[in-house]
């Protein structure tokens, strides 16, 4: 498949890591996606997509048009159709908040149809995206839609969440949450409340996801991997805790995950993050 993406122009870049198009025939139908530090908007112009939660008590979902996904704290699986034409937005963990007009914790670990958030919009958006002549035109359409949906400040508490969340991002989750609250001049409980409102999860959970993302991205599957060294560099100081979290987040042991990475290397032009892995 071909992946074309870019960082949007200001002011969207404060909230969005990238917008992208994914087109073509997938090499694998099922993908296993660990928690990553982002929320998502997907607009699909192909066949239906099936989504499975790793929590087996959650019923599977089939989505056909466009849907939002908040920050996920556990892995999920999705099934590509036979041919893919997908337009996506990777929001920063706090980035969806000023676009959706609802508390982010209502989107945590959920896939929600776009029309449930932006009422009676999905047909118009799909028509505009479908009429775009090139990936560049498609991304321009998506950016225009996002700009039209961006609410004006003030966003209660969002600037504080952006600031502290940005520090977690640049430190890969290594800054103690208590230090973040002290530096911001607020209590830990108040900071957690704001994060739940604008991110959907607590800053401690965001730190864990950034820490894990750093570990995954640092894996070079073409070379021998010293898991103890990588885990320590990412801030894991208890090997048993690292092993449990790795299995929880990926469904695999580190050894099994590395074997998959070596068996199914990312193709040229694939998304930058190395988290999702084939599940079939």
SSE order and pairing:
Elements (H helix, E strand, L loop, with lengths): L1 E5 L9 E9 L5 E4 L5 E6 L4 E5 L7 E3 L2 E4 L6 E4 L4 E8 L5 H4 L10 E3 H4 L4 H10 L3 H15 L8 H14 L5 H8 L3 H11 L4 H15 L9 H7 L5 H12 L3 H10 L13 E2 L2
Antiparallel strand pairs: 1-2, 2-9, 3-8, 3-11, 4-7, 4-9, 5-6, 5-8, 7-10
What does this structure look like?
The chain is of the alpha+beta class. It has helices at 97-100, 114-117, 122-131, 135-149, 158-171, 177-184, 188-198, 203-217, 227-233, 239-250, 254-263, and strands at residues 2-6, 16-24, 30-33, 39-44, 49-53, 61-63, 66-69, 76-79, 84-91, 111-113, 277-278. It has a six-stranded antiparallel sheet with strand order 1-2-9-4-7-10. It has a five-stranded antiparallel sheet with strand order 6-5-8-3-11. The mean pLDDT is 92.
Helix/strand/pairing category? alpha+beta
Using the alpha-carbon principal axes, give the shape: globular
| Widest sheet, order of strands | 1-2-9-4-7-10
- Average pLDDT confidence is 92
Whole-angstrom Rg: 19 Å
- Give, in order, the helices and strands: EEEEEEEEEHEHHHHHHHHHHE
Query: Could you give a short account of the major beta sheet?
Result: 6 strands, antiparallel
**Beta content:** 15-25%
Helix content: 25-40%
Number of helices: 11
Give the CA-CA distance, first to last residue: 17 Å
Question: Would you count the extended β strands for me?
Answer: 11
Uncertain segments are none
């Amino acid at each position: 498949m071909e992946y074309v993406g870019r960082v949007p122009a200001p002011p969207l870049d404060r909230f969005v890591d990238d917008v992208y198009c994914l087109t073509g025939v997938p090499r694998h139908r099922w993908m296993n996606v660990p928690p990553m530090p982002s929320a998502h908007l997907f607009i699909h112009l192909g066949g239906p997509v099936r989504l499975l939660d790793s929590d087996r008590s959650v019923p599977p979902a089939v989505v056909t048009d466009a849907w939002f996904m908040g920050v996920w704290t556990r892995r999920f699986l999705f099934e590509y159709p036979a041919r893919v034409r997908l337009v996506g937005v990777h929001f920063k963990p706090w980035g969806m908040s000023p676009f959706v007009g609802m508390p982010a914790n209502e989107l945590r670990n959920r896939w929600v149809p776009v029309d449930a958030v932006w009422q009676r919009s999905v047909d118009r958006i799909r028509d505009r995206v479908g009429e775009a002549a090139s990936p560049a035109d498609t991304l321009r359409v998506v950016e225009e839609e996002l700009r039209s949906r961006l609410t004006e400040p003030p966003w209660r508490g969002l600037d504080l969440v952006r600031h502290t969340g940005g520090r977690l991002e640049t430190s890969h989750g290594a800054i103690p949450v208590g230090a973040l609250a002290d530096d911001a001049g607020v209590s830990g409980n108040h900071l957690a409340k704001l994060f739940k409102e604008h991110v959907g999860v607590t800053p401690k959970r965001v730190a864990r996801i950034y820490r894990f993302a750093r570990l995954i991205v640092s894996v070079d599957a073409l070379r021998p991997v010293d898991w103890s060294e990588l885990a320590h560099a990412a801030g894991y100081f208890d090997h048993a805790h690292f092993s449990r979290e790795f299995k929880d987040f990926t469904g695999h042991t580190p050894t099994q995950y590395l074997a998959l990475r070596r068996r199914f290397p990312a193709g040229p032009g694939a998304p930058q993050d190395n988290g999702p892995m084939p599940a079939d």
